[in-house]
Design goal:
- The protein is α/β, with parallel strands linked by helices.
- The protein has 2 domains: 126 residues, Urease, subunit C, domain 1, CATH 2.30.40; 314 residues, Metal-dependent hydrolases (TIM Barrel, Alpha-Beta Barrel).
- The protein contains 14 helices and 17 strands.
- The mean pLDDT is 97.
- It binds guanine and fe (iii) ion.
- The site of guanine has 11 residues, from helix 2 and helix 10.
- Fe (iii) ion (FE) binds next to strand 6.
- Pathway: Purine metabolism; guanine degradation; xanthine from guanine: step 1/1.
- This is Guanine deaminase.
- It holds the Pfam family Amidohydro_1.
Length: 451
């Protein structure tokens, strides 16, 4: 039977429009969607409330708690969870070669993969992340285990088996043997996910790690596969000075142009980082309707530049937020949205106070907390083309119920949201729903009629 939540909620419809509604009635219907939203001002409010009470399907969220859309992590390397926070002072290629590739190679061991993936998916759910776009490792078995765990724990997941076969940029013990193997492995993975997850809670993603790790033939074949299947694609794009220059040296073009030429830059593509884009690249990404996963923590370590979030949001590119576990150390999109705001402020103000104030930074770069909230919710959903990320009729019921930190002053709704997003620990995320199903609850004191 349908349940009805009585709750106050925040939802971002666009980067600069966050809705707030008090004590609304939100009906979750059997197919996992929001079937009805009745606000207090609605003439049917009392009638609907009484009906929900009578059928005993009403859940009244306790005072001081708010309903938010579940967060969407648009870039996460599942096998890197064991090294969160480690060696972030190294340059990107050094970190990849000396820490990341050796760690990912261990995921040939299915027991190890199972232990890590259980902990990661559970941790993300407890942090309010209801959907994630994952890079796995190169191992189909471990990646299928990740899919199984996401389905068991109830997280919406988009998973790629990582392709990397360029002998010049990958270690002998952690690479695909050649283009043909990389292709057949990817096809097998896609089939297996589609067979094992017919409800599509978990979906496959074509995943060339990034241009440096892939041979040219492999990029060609993966591009053809993307055209043939119309599946999502994920990769890293113009991520750092070294990586951007590597692609210029090899192809004489930027990452975005090369990806587009191979058929890997389209409306199904999610490009991680993109800190080094030229103006022409930005235009190309917009024209092709590809999305960008902004990973503010990771970019601080490896990006060699601050992503122009505000400029690209204003140009209406599709952008969401990624943790980039473990180029970013935090599994929490709260931490990442806070960092997105902070980084944008630094881009605006500049970093060297010895320069004149008006030439230190880039004007109009700061994003608001509302814009960061949009990125973590509706922006991520638009990037994945999923019907989620907002609390709206017909949307998937992917939610988090969050307790506000103690308050010692009266706040406007706008300040309440900012306070909630910045004064936050996972302890305050009391309940998480995916597809209208309760997939995590902290304690049972988040609703009034708790038994
Ligand atoms: N570029 C290519 N692979 C990776 C990775 O695993 N993490 C990050 N942050 N960047 C990458
Ligand atoms: Fe990454």
């Amino acid at each position: 039977m349908a349940i009805t939540l009585k709750t106050s909620y925040f939802s971002a419809n666009s980067p600069n429009h966050v809705e707030f509604h008090e004590q609304s009635l939100i009906e979750l219907i059997e197919n996992g969607q929001i079937g009805q939203i009745i606000h207090q001002s609605d003439p049917d409010y009392q009638k609907t409330l009484t009906a929900a009470q009578t059928t005993d399907q009403l859940i009244t969220i306790a005072p001081g708690h708010y309903l938010l859309p579940g967060f969407i992590d648009l870039h996460n390397h599942a096998p890197q969870w064991p090294q969160a926070g480690i060696a972030l002072d190294r340059p990107l290629n050094d970190w990849l070669n000396h820490y990341t590739f050796p760690l990912e190679a261990r995921f040939a061991d299915l027991d190890y993969a199972t232990a890590v993936y259980r902990d990661l998916v559970h941790t993300l759910l407890t942090n309010g992340t209801t959907s994630a776009l994952y890079f796995g490792s190169i191992h189909n078995n471990a990646n299928l285990k990740l899919a199984e765990i996401c389905a068991q724990l109830g997280q919406r997941a988009f998973i790629g088996t990582v392709v990397m076969d360029n002998p010049e940029q990958t270690p002998a013990n952690y690479r695909d043997v050649n283009s043909a193997t990389a292709l057949s492995k990817t096809r097998t993975f896609i089939q297996a996910i589609q067979n094992q997850h017919p409800d599509q809670l978990v979906q496959p993603v074509i995943t060339p790690r990034f241009i440096p790790s892939c041979q040219t033939e492999t990029l060609t074949q993966l591009g053809r596969l993307a055209q043939e299947t119309q599946l999502r694609v994920q990769t890293h794009c113009s991520q750092s000075t070294w990586e951007h220059q590597y692609v210029l040296d090899r192809f004489g073009q930027t990452d975005s142009v090369v990806l587009q030429q191979f058929g890997l830059l389209n409306q199904h593509a999610v490009l991680a980082h993109a800190t080094q884009l030229t103006t022409a690249d930005q235009q190309l990404i917009k024209t092709e309707q590809a999305a960008i996963a902004h990973c503010p923590l990771s970019n601080a370590y490896f990006g060699n530049g601050v992503f122009p979030t505000k400029q690209l949001l204003d140009q209406q590119l599709k952008i969401g937020l990624g943790t980039d576990i473990a180029g970013g150390y935090s599994p929490s999109l709260y931490t990442n949205l806070q960092t997105a705001v902070t980084a944008s402020q630094m881009r605006q103000d500049g970093v060297d106070a010895r320069l004149p104030a008006d030439s230190r930074g880039v004007a109009d770069s700061r994003i608001t907390t509302e814009e960061a909230f949009y990125l973590a919710t509706a922006g991520g959903a638009a990037s994945l083309a999923i019907n989620a990320g907002q609390i709206k009729l017909g949307m998937l019921a992917d939610f988090q119920i969050v307790q506000a930190a103690p308050q010692f002053t009266t706040l406007t709704p706008a300040d309440q949201l900012t306070h909630l997003l910045f004064n936050h620990t996972a302890q305050q995320i009391k309940a998480v729903y995916v597809n209208g199903q309760l997939v995590h609850q902290k304690e049972q004191n988040w609703y009034d009629n708790a038994q």
